[in-house]
Amino acid sequence: MKKVLWDLKNRFKKVSVKNSLQCLFVTFSVCTVVLTGTVVFANRASKVENGQGGFESPTIPVTEEVLDGISEGQGGEGEIPAAFDESYSLSYFAYRVRSGDMIGRIAEQFDITSDTIISVNNIRNSRLLQIGDYLKIPTMPGILYNVKKDGETIDSIAEKYKVDAVKCSAVNHIEHTASISAGSTVFVPDAELDWATRAEINGDLFRKPIRARWYCSSRFGWRSSPFTGVRSYHSGVDMACPTGTNIYAALPGKVSATGYNSTYGNYVIIAHHSGYKTLYGHMSAITCVKGQVVTQDSRIGRVGSTGMSTGPHLHFTVFKNNKQVNPENLWN
Q1: Where do the structural domains in the chain lie, given as residue ranges?
Q2: Which pLDDT tens digit goes with each residue over 205-252?
Q3: Interatomic CA distance for residues 92 and 112, integer angstroms
Q4: Cα–Cα distances in Å, from 54 out to 4, 19, 58, 61, 290?
Q5: pTM of the predicted model as reported, rounded to 2 decimal places
Q6: Beta-carbon neighbour count of residue 185 at 10 Å?
Q7: Which top CATH class is 66-202?
Q8: What gap in Å lies between CA 250 and CA 246, rounded to an integer?
Q9: CATH T-level topology, domain 215-329
Q10: Which residues of the chain carry a pLDDT beneath 50?
């Protein structure tokens, strides 16, 4: 009997110890879970306070970006935006010019034309593009058109540039046949600049009138007079070379005047398209006549030193709408 009681007692102790260990393990596990959850919650709360997390949207937010240069890779600052919306909605964003940029390269990257960038930004000389300049980039190719007279319509403008009148109307929110006031500006999608304007802006409208070797003895603008030393305005470029050197028309046109005066000596004036005129002075001989139609291969005279001149050279002046402009900005 004593033996039976002893055995039961021992078994009871073993079960109690075992149950105690199991209870301790369960209690420890529950505490661990609770503590872990508390730490995770605390960490998440901490991240939210530090600006991390929050509400996310599956779509890309629409923003107006200022791009500083064109990124060569994917992502990162300066990235080219995703493909433009092909609807008729027109908008612009800013682009900052960086080292090595050219108008043609920028246009290619944004799937527009060089004419678009030139027109929208009113660029008069593409050679003067500077690092750090900001350009407006539209979301579709086209040019700006300034309405010349009252009564023009989207239909007439679209016909002028051979573009889709429906698209032009939608972009500008103007009815096809609605009369547009003079001075208004219309964006003409898919239109291009005329070749003369493009050549003028790119600096290759004219050919140099001297095809032989020459050097610039006086540039366009203010200078000291070679006769008096007084500061005076020089209306053209002096191209010094030997007497008798052939002179060519710088642009196709029609000879509007030939003659002699005390300043320019023997001179020729040629009228060209787009409001341009050119003057050639100090010639030793004139080899064209008034009214003659000339090309860039037409010889119109020979270099000399007639009139007010200190030596053989060609004085070359360019007028745009009767205003003198720098020839060096217009020739290649």
Answers
A1: 66-202, 215-329
A2: 899 999 999 999 988 887 777 767 777 778 899 999 999 999 999 999
A3: 12
A4: 69, 46, 13, 15, 80
A5: 0.58
A6: 10
A7: alpha beta
A8: 12
A9: Glucose Permease (Domain IIA) (2.70.70)
A10: 1-6, 8-9, 12-21, 23-86
